[in-house]
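Many introductory courses stop at the sequence. We go one step further.
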Amino acid sequence: MKSLPQCRRPLIDIRGSVRNSLSWAGRFCLLLLLCGLYCPRLLAQAPNAAAQAKPAAPAGKNAPQWKLQYFYDELGVELHLVGLAFPSVTRGIAVGAVVDHTGSHKPKFSALVTNDAGAHWTLVPLQDAPRSIFFLDEANGWMVGRDAIWYTQEAGRSWKRVSYQIHPQKKLGEEGVVLRVAFVDPLHGFAVGLRKSVYETKDGGKTWVAMAEAAVPSSNPAYSAYTQVAFTKDGRGMIVGGYTPPRRDGRREDGDLEEALERKQVPTLTLELETRDGGEHWRSETAPLLGVLTHLSLNGAHGLGAFGYADSFAWPSEVFHFDLKTGKSASVFKQKDRRVTDVLVDDEGNGFLAAVEPAGRLASSPIPGKVRMLHSANLQDWEEMRVNYKAVARNVMLAGPDREHLWAATDTGMILHWDGAAAAK
């Protein structure tokens, strides 16, 4: 409530009346919806100075920065990374595809692995097109592929197929629905994806059972998907997605520049499942909401969620802090020239944001922009971190076991490293 002081007074009474019946995510969705109704100018025109980050400290000869640790630099060939994990301070895995624009253009699906904290990286071939990866620890990792779900006990150096992709409609040529997985222990996990799908496994991913709670919302499965899943160590968990029906104004999503800038941000239906006991029981809720939750990180009593908006909106993305104990939420970062592409909360409550400075008028421009990193010790006040000037990307992913050992991967084939221990000296 404090993050939106311009809203009319009745909103306080409404929020208070539903406090006992809605989860923190439900109250958060209701808060934004009502602020859109009561304060439309706030959503469209509000200045973002209060949520902007402080500039990075002046550069010195030994000033800490995100260093370029690896770059796949080959003329006419690109490495597109789509997933990153660092289950320990020494072992890291990134997955993607090598695309040769001078040859056949056929992608070579690959994993980029290290066992010495990134001092050396090795490309390992994959048998499937990767969509995402999840690591519980060094000995337990899963990869969601286009055709199957894979498992590794060797930190990504070799993979074993544990199950095929899930095709609920069983139609010829149908795309597998699973987009990502998350596990609470080596056997118990959850898969989320297209067609409003959530599945549960209790044998490490060999068999999957559809979760009835995911089908509770009445939205059309053809335009609904659960895209984010995250857990804390004490069993709190969230599965979030949305229902986005086709546009009724006849505008194409891939239209020209002017059309993209005129395309209005319209509310979509946010789908949310919440658990407090490691996935044994779930509660389903829905709420209309501007924007789409694109990234989620939960750790301890805190969570960060990044919402993405249309190119015509006042800012390309907005980050919210979720207090998992009190159920309160607040907008903590939005800036017109920072499109947040990933969020991370560490064990001590520090927050990190990976962002791209759009290279042009469109925040969703396909042209890579400068990589920007931000840090907050209280999840409210943000400060820019220095980044190697060569780092450019359209998408940046964050991973690391703690704040002193962080890595970032880009869709342009770069691995960046932040050595927090050295920065503290």
